[in-house]
Structures are given as C-alpha cells and as structure tokens.
Amino acid sequence: MSKNTVSDRFRKVDVDEYDENKFVDEEEGGENQLGPDEAEVDSLIRQGNLMGALQAVLKNPPISTKNQNVKDRAEGLVLKVLSSFKSTDIEKGVQSLDKNGVDLLMKYIYKGFEQPSENSSAVLLQWHEKALSAGGVGCIVRVLTARKTV
Amino acid sequence: MSYHSFLLEPISCHAWNKDRTQIAMCPNNHEVHIYKKEGSNWNKIHVLKEHNGQVTGIDWAPESNRIVTCGTDRNAYVWTLKGDAWKPTLVILRINRAARCVKWSPKENKFAVGSGSRLISVCYFEQDNDWWVCKHIKKPIRSTILCLDWHPNNVLLAAGSCDFKCRIFSAYIKEVEEKPAPTAWGSKMPFGEVMFESTGTAGWVHGVCFSDSGNRVAWASHDSTVAVAEGGKTAVLTSETLPLLCVTFITENSLVAAGHDCYPVLFVYDSNKAALSFGGKLDVPKQSAQKGMTARERFQNLDKKATTDSKEAVLESLHKNSISQISILNGGKARCAKFCTTGMDGGMAIWDVKTLESAMKDLKIV
C-alpha cells in the first residue's frame, strides 16, 4: 500500500486549469500602455517640482498590460517620487489628487509593500496614512478587489 | 427608529407579509421562523421545517399570501397557508449548487431563483400538471447570482452576480403572460435576452434594485461602489466606506444602502447630470458621556492599544454587525415611509423616513 502513496506529484497539478467553467477575465488590449513617462518625471524631480512629478507619475498607469517590466518600471518610478517628498509635504501631495488619483496611489503603495527595499516601507507607510485619511477604507477595498492592477 | 434583537445568530434573510404584522426569517439554520407582532412583543407563531440546508432567501407574496423559500440544499419550496399551518410544495430547480436568492414577480405568477450554478431559474405554475416548472437563464452568466429584483412589468429581471456584472434579463414566460410592451431597456424581450450589462464597476454585485418606474437600476458592488444606470448612462459613486450589501430605492431619486459598516446610508441620483452623490449617514449615534480618564487608564491604553485616545472600541450604530438585507415596509419604492434592515447581529431595525429627515439637518430626500 505504501508504494502508490510515495509519489506526491499529483499535488502540484493545477486542477483549476482543467475546469471547463473556469472564469477568465476579459482581454483588454493593453499592449500600448507604457506607464508614466520616465524622462518627464525625472526632469520634474530635478527641478524640485514634486507636486508636478506626482501628477506626472500617476499618468498612464500600466493596468492592462501583461508586460511585467513595464509594471516594475512604473512602480520603481513611483517609489522614487514618493521617497523624494519631505514628510511634511506628503499630506499636501495627497490633497492635490482627485478620487481616482488617490485610488491609484493606494494601488502603487500596496504594490510597493510587496517588494520592500531599504527604506521603502517607512516612506510608503507615511504615504499610506495620508492616503487612507483621504480615501477611507473604501480605497483599500478597491485595491483588494481590482482584477487588473498596476 | 426601533430595534428588536431577535437572535444571537445572524438573520440570513427575512420577508414581511402584506400588512406588516408578521415577519418570516431564517435564524441562520435550516428553518424559517414566522414572528407576529402582538402589542409590543414579537411572538413566534410558526416554524417552517423542510429545508435540509441553510435557507438563503425568503419572499412573501403580499396578494396571494404565499411564501417562497430557497436554500443551500438546492431546493425551493412554495408555502401556502392551509388553515393554521403552512404547507410546502417542492419546486424542482434543476440546479447542482446552492440557491442564493429568490423573488416573487410583481404579479406573483412566477418567481426567480439565483444560484451558485451560474444560472437563474424562473419558475411558474403549470395548471395542467399542477406543478411548478422552471426555465433557466444561463448565458452569459459566469458565476454565482447573488441578488435579484423584478421590473414592475413582470418580465424584466435584474440580477447581480459574482462575475462582477449587473445584468437585466428578460424572464418572459409565454405560458403565463402576454407579450410585454416596449420599455426603456428595449422592445424585443424573448426569454433569456440580455437587455443590459453593467460596466464601470468591479467587485461582486451584492445588491440590485429597480426604481419604482423601472427605468433605473441601482447596484452595490464589493469594491465599495454604488452605481445607477438609466438610458444608456451609468453613474458610479466610489465610497470611502466598507462595501455595501443591499440597496433599495426609496423615491425615484433617492437610494438607501447598507452593508458592512452597519449603518444605512442615503444616496441621491441626479438624472440631469447623470451623477450619484452621497446624501448622508442614516444613523443617529447615541451621545455617550465623556468620561475623564485617570492617568492609570491612559497608561494602560498606551500599553495595550498604543493609543491615548479615550474613544471606546464600541460601534455607535444601531446594528452591531453588518446589515445584510433591507426591505421597504410602506410607501413602496416611490414614496417609502418606513424601511427595515436585518443583519448579522440577529437584530431587526425599523427606520422611519420622516423622523430621519427631521433628525439630520442637510438630509434631503428628493
């Protein structure tokens, strides 16, 4: 009896793939989504125009694209902008965003939490606190329920 | 406002009889309990035992006085009052997953059951065989149907599903009714036709409701949004609160919704701008006396909860847990005067619209 219970390869089979009723998200052509413009954002940071940099980096979010590089690049850029803000200016930065902007910012913040680096978590937590008071828990719920995210 | 705590367990679903003296509810088990209001007490007068699984939906037809129940045992029963007892009739739904919600049509000659089998069973009574028969609406539903609401024309049915869409189907059964007149949603309505499919919201659709005229449909999604669609335009409002579970129109322009935040909320729809806006929180919190804190309490708070706030961690709302269902008591969806909410705290609250309007300044129910 012990012979046929030795192999456990069956545990690695993804049975959902064989389900004929498996839910597949609708394909939305997102191949032309390139993410925020790196050059524009960099120049705004260098000029010290952090508000402008924030607005610029939240443009063209790579939501529908399947290209992981584009997504990673966008996340890195956002992190750069968020880290260059002074702690006291974070609140003003969040106030300058509209509802959709706050939702998008929260998506980037949580994406940043997934890959913590040197100092990123501390900065992100400060931004999280301010974004939460602007967007409420509803904003976080939308990050959790979004099928396509940055 | 009045609040009555029926049970310690959640109330899975409830339905009122025509004159609102009796309420049928499921106390989170396989039974349906019917309570009657006698004076200021609620007395249990009937217990309906037939289901083998949790009862997930109850609807009480006001004119014909029949109750339809559906449950996780994949069955639905139509109950008729014979003398002093409710007698069940089994309805074969032909589903292989749990039934989730059930609603009588406005004329009470058919009812629809939403299920986890990714389909809606529309059931009608076949005189010849003396038996309830059902037809299925399958395409293009791709996940569980969570909520249903009928259009006043007795043919169109709005369904909210776990595949993130709210759809309006035609549930036209030629055996029991005439061809329907054209509506704002379309003129050709063969059975199973999709008259409308929502866009603009993500998240499971927990609650759906037609307005009194049937020209508008509102739905509440799990991504903390509420949306209203009318004439090809959809107005979406993202909310800062936890997701809403149930929604109903109380006038043609105002909606009341409630959910995981445990208090009902008012929304106002402006059809000229096709915009939905937040109208106000409909719960009057008790004014708790401000106690002074001793230094010891402050230090304990800091130690245990890392905060120096003197706010107690107690919900100030009437319901102490999520509100799962909302029903209109009188006035209909056009001029609702009272509505009722039940929730996971086992309690039922009755809200008076006039009282709410006068209690909250800035609250305008248009």
From TrEMBL, chain A:
One of its GO terms (molecular function) is actin binding. GO terms for cellular component: Arp2/3 protein complex. One of its GO terms (biological process) is regulation of actin filament polymerization. Keywords: Actin-binding, Cytoplasm, Cytoskeleton. It comes from the Eukaryota. InterPro entries: ARPC5, ARPC5_sf. It holds the Pfam family P16-Arc. Its main location: cytoplasm. The keyword Nucleotidyltransferase does not apply. It is found in: Cytoplasm, Cytoskeleton. The keyword Transcription regulation does not apply. Functions as component of the Arp2/3 complex which is involved in regulation of actin polymerization and together with an activating nucleation-promoting factor (NPF) mediates the formation of branched actin networks. Arp2/3 complex plays a critical role in the control of cell morphogenesis via the modulation of cell polarity development. Belongs to the ARPC5 family. This is Actin-related protein 2/3 complex subunit 5. The gene is LOC109112762.
TrEMBL record, chain B:
InterPro entries: ARPC1, WD40/YVTN_repeat-like_dom_sf, WD40_repeat_dom_sf, WD40_rpt. GO terms for cellular component: Arp2/3 protein complex; nucleus. One of its GO terms (molecular function) is actin filament binding. It is found in: Cytoplasm, Cytoskeleton; Nucleus. One of its GO terms (biological process) is Arp2/3 complex-mediated actin nucleation. SUPFAM superfamilies: WD40 repeat-like. Keywords: Actin-binding, Cytoplasm, Cytoskeleton, Nucleus, Repeat, WD repeat. Functions as component of the Arp2/3 complex which is involved in regulation of actin polymerization and together with an activating nucleation-promoting factor (NPF) mediates the formation of branched actin networks. Belongs to the WD repeat ARPC1 family. This is Actin-related protein 2/3 complex subunit. It comes from Cyprinus carpio (Common carp). The gene is arpc1b.
